[in-house]
Amino acid sequence: MNSPIDWHARARALSIRSQAFIDGAYVSAASGATFDCISPIDGRVIAKVAECGEEDVDRAVKSARAAFVKGTWSRMAPAKRKAVLLKFAELIRVHADELALLETLDMGKPIRDSVRVDLPATERCIAWYAEAIDKLYDQVAPTAPTALALITREPTGVIGAIVPWNFPLIMTAWKIAPALAAGNSVLLKPSEKSPLTALRIAELAISAGIPEGVFNVVPGFGGTAGKALALHMDVDCIAFTGSTATGKQMLQYSGQSNMKRVWLECGGKSPNIVLADAPNIDRAAQAAASAIFFNQGEMCTAGSRLLVQESIKDELLEKVAQHARALLPGDPLDPSTKLGAIVDDVQLKRVLGYIDIGRGEGADVRVGGKRVREESGGFYVEPTVFERVTPSMRIAREEIFGPVLTTITFKDLEDAVRIGNDVIYGLAAAVWTKDVNVAHRVARELRAGMVYVNCYDEDDITVPFGGYKQSGTGRDKSLHAFDKYTELKTTWIKLGE
Question: Which residues are catalytic?
Answer without folding.
Answer: 265, 300
